[in-house]
Amino acid sequence: MSLPTNPTLCVLGCGTMGRAILSGILDSLNVAPANEPPTLIPKKFIACVSGEESAQRIKEEFNDKITLLVGNNVEGVKEADIILLCTKPQVVKTILTEEGMQKSLENKLIISILAGVTIDQLKEWAPSSTRIIRAMPNTPCMIREGMTVLSCPTDCSKDDRSFSIWVFSTLGRARILDEKHLDAVTGLSGSGPAFACVVLEALADGGVMMGLPREVGLELAAQALQGAARMVLKTGKHPAEIKDSVTTPGGCTIAGLLTMEDGKIRSTLARTIQEATQVASTLGNIQSKK
Ligand SMILES: NC(=O)C1=CN([C@@H]2O[C@H](COP(=O)(O)OP(=O)(O)OC[C@H]3O[C@@H](n4cnc5c(N)ncnc54)[C@H](OP(=O)(O)O)[C@@H]3O)[C@@H](O)[C@H]2O)C=CC1
Ligand SMILES: O=C(O)[C@@H]1CCC=N1
């Protein structure tokens, strides 16, 4: 089944990530494409939520740019060509198996960002004609600085793939990997902004401890992390090379680095990703009854 040139996109579950992705796409449609323009451009957007509080937030953020449906997922999916699944992992089975949903899902493309929910699980709950792509984005998609990894099974069409890659490329970087890597991607890249913010906050605390005003500490820490990260991405240099270039023999940086190593910062951070990956792999296992 091929996609229409101007597909309708339904964001099913429009919370933190749904809004981040939707705002990134809407922003990107207002700027001229840097590369080859996409062959498929979504023209209509639907957001589905179940509660008034989320609905209010969406109204305030998107106003008349989208159609908002509260407690009517079946209608939202029926109207759409592509469903961006952004609910919590625990409710997805209930949503996909709701009365009327199977018919609405016939021949549609689902792009799921749910942590820990596998393509096989989604196939089990959706009709056999539904194509499924799994994606793991992160919150910086909100400012179009995101990272998304996609897994596209072989039954997806060229259009399905290219549309999905286009969507997430407009929100930052995007790449394709085999599904077996997606839990590690979730632990590193999906959760990563939270881990990075703890590091950032701690660095700023150090500055505050040494007398810097809080907002200066935060600006310096954020810009140091952003600058270092951009150097890695832009130059392709190994982080150790960049670290060594900062480290003057007998200077203050090596003094600070040894203190970090005494605190086992490397194994602590690496084990953080190990633990987050392990938990991510279990998130699809618990499905709520209601
Ligand atoms: N947060 C993150 O950084 C990332 C999250 N993810 C994944 O994204 C998904 C969403 O996470 P996040 O955005 O943080 O979660 P939120 O809780 O912010 O958003 C979930 C949304 O789903 C809606 N929802 C819940 N139940 C239903 C229902 N029955 N029908 C329709 N809508 C419903 C909620 O609306 P209402 O309250 O009105 O019910 C809410 O808008 C998760 O699966 C997570 O694993 C992936 C990458 C990063
Ligand atoms: O914490 C979570 O479960 C989600 C998945 C990745 C980021 N947040």
From TrEMBL:
<dbReference type="Pfam" id="PF14748">
    <property type="entry name" value="P5CR_dimer"/>
</dbReference>
<dbReference type="InterPro" id="IPR008927">
    <property type="entry name" value="6-PGluconate_DH-like_C_sf"/>
</dbReference>
<feature type="binding site">
    <location>
        <begin position="12"/>
        <end position="17"/>
    </location>
    <ligand>
        <name>NADP(+)</name>
    </ligand>
</feature>
<dbReference type="InterPro" id="IPR000304">
    <property type="entry name" value="Pyrroline-COOH_reductase"/>
</dbReference>
<keyword id="KW-0028">Amino-acid biosynthesis</keyword>
<comment type="pathway">
    <text>Amino-acid biosynthesis; L-proline biosynthesis; L-proline from L-glutamate 5-semialdehyde: step 1/1.</text>
</comment>
<dbReference type="Pfam" id="PF03807">
    <property type="entry name" value="F420_oxidored"/>
</dbReference>
<dbReference type="GO" id="GO:0055129">
    <property type="term" value="P:L-proline biosynthetic process"/>
</dbReference>
<protein>
    <recommendedName>
        <fullName>Pyrroline-5-carboxylate reductase</fullName>
        <ecNumber>1.5.1.2</ecNumber>
    </recommendedName>
</protein>
<keyword id="KW-0560">Oxidoreductase</keyword>
<dbReference type="InterPro" id="IPR028939">
    <property type="entry name" value="P5C_Rdtase_cat_N"/>
</dbReference>
<dbReference type="InterPro" id="IPR036291">
    <property type="entry name" value="NAD(P)-bd_dom_sf"/>
</dbReference>
<keyword id="KW-0641">Proline biosynthesis</keyword>
<dbReference type="GO" id="GO:0004735">
    <property type="term" value="F:pyrroline-5-carboxylate reductase activity"/>
</dbReference>
<feature type="domain" description="Pyrroline-5-carboxylate reductase dimerisation">
    <location>
        <begin position="179"/>
        <end position="282"/>
    </location>
</feature>
<comment type="similarity">
    <text>Belongs to the pyrroline-5-carboxylate reductase family.</text>
</comment>
<feature type="domain" description="Pyrroline-5-carboxylate reductase catalytic N-terminal">
    <location>
        <begin position="9"/>
        <end position="116"/>
    </location>
</feature>
<feature type="binding site">
    <location>
        <position position="73"/>
    </location>
    <ligand>
        <name>NADPH</name>
    </ligand>
</feature>
<dbReference type="InterPro" id="IPR029036">
    <property type="entry name" value="P5CR_dimer"/>
</dbReference>
<keyword id="KW-0521">NADP</keyword>
<feature type="binding site">
    <location>
        <position position="39"/>
    </location>
    <ligand>
        <name>NADP(+)</name>
    </ligand>
</feature>
<dbReference type="InterPro" id="IPR053790">
    <property type="entry name" value="P5CR-like_CS"/>
</dbReference>
